[in-house]
Design goal:
The structure holds 2 protein chains of 2 kinds.
Chain A lengths: L2 E3 L4 E5 L4 E3 L2 E3 L5 E7 L5 E7 L5 E3 L5 E5 L4 E6 L8 E8 L9 E2 L3 E6 L1
Parallel strand pairs in A: 2-12
Antiparallel strand pairs in A: 1-4, 3-9, 5-6, 5-10, 7-8, 8-9, 10-11, 10-12
Chain B lengths: L4 E3 L2 E4 L5 E6 L6 E7 L6 E7 L2 E5 L6 E5 L5 E5 L8 E8 L8 E2 L3 E5 L1
Parallel strand pairs in B: 2-11
Antiparallel strand pairs in B: 1-3, 3-8, 4-5, 4-9, 5-6, 7-8, 9-10, 9-11
Classes of the chains: A mainly beta, B mainly beta.
C-alpha cells in the first residue's frame, strides 16, 4: 500500500539551532515529493517539492529538503530555526503512475521552536 | 491574484442533513481536488475534478459527491451526514501538468452534531 510516514509527532528545537523533520515514503516508481506547512486554523501552505534532478531542494522561508532514493526519505531541514517556524508540517507524495495530482499525506509533525 | 478561496469558513449541521461546500481555484488552474482533514490527522484525498468530470476518487462513500463548473469552481456535497464527517475540508487547485503544485484554500470546518 502507498503510504507516507512521519515518525515524530513533535520536534522541539531551540531558536537558532538547526532543525530536521523526518519523512519516509512507500510508493512504487518515481514519486513526486512535497512539504506543506499548516498554521492554526489555516489551510496548507506549500514549502517545496522534489520532482527530479538535484537531491537537495530549496524552498520558501529558508527551508530545504534532501531526497534519498535508497532510503526512500525526504527530510525537511533548516539551518537556523525561528520561533515563527512553529507550526504543523506535512510531507506528501504524488505517486508516479496514473496518480494525476492525488497527494498522499503523512500524519504531520508539530514543530515547536523555543526562544 | 487571489489564491484558492472556500466558503463557508465554518458550518454546523446535524446528523442526517446534507451540506454543500464551495471552492474557487487559483487563477489559471483548471484542476480541483478535495481533501478531508480530521482532527490530528493528515489530509485524506476525496476526489479530483478536471474538465467538469470526476477523474479520480479516494476511499470515500458515495455520500460524498462533487461538481465542477465551466469556470473551474467546484462544489463538494455530503449527504446523510454522520458525526464522523466532522472535519476540515480542504480544496486544492493546480494546472493539469505533471508535477504541478497543488495550492490549498483555507478550508471549511464542518461540525456535525
Amino acid at each position: 500500500a502507498q503510504s507516507v510516514a512521519q515518525p515524530e509527532d513533535q520536534v522541539n528545537v531551540a531558536e537558532g539551532n538547526p532543525l530536521t523533520v523526518k519523512c519516509t515514503y512507500s510508493v512504487s516508481g518515481n514519486p513526486y515529493l512535497f512539504w506543506y506547512v499548516q498554521y492554526p486554523n489555516r489551510g496548507l501552505q506549500f514549502l517545496l517539492k522534489y520532482i527530479t534532478g538535484d537531491n537537495l531542494v530549496k524552498g520558501s522561508y529558508g527551508f530545504e529538503a534532501e531526497f534519498n532514493k535508497s532510503q526512500t526519505s525526504f527530510h525537511l531541514k533548516k539551518p537556523s530555526a525561528l520561533v515563527s517556524d512553529s507550526a504543523l508540517y506535512f510531507c506528501a507524495v504524488r505517486p508516479d503512475s496514473g496518480g494525476y495530482n492525488k497527494l498522499i499525506f503523512g500524519a504531520g509533525t508539530r514543530l515547536a521552536v523555543h526562544p | 491574484d487571489a489564491g484558492v478561496t472556500q466558503s463557508p469558513t465554518h458550518l454546523i449541521k446535524t446528523r442526517g442533513q446534507q451540506v454543500t461546500l464551495r471552492c474557487s481555484p487559483k487563477s489559471g488552474h483548471d484542476t480541483v481536488s478535495w481533501y478531508q482533514q480530521a482532527l490530528g490527522q493528515g489530509p485524506q484525498f476525496i476526489f479530483q475534478y478536471y474538465e467538469e468530470e470526476e477523474r479520480q476518487r479516494g476511499n470515500f462513500p458515495d455520500r460524498f459527491s462533487g461538481h465542477q463548473f465551466p469556470n473551474y469552481s467546484s462544489e463538494l456535497n455530503v449527504n446523510a451526514l454522520l458525526l464522523g464527517d466532522s472535519a476540515l475540508y480542504l480544496c486544492a487547485s493546480s494546472p493539469d501538468t505533471g508535477g504541478a503544485t497543488q495550492y490549498f484554500g483555507p478550508g471549511t470546518r464542518l461540525l456535525v452534531l
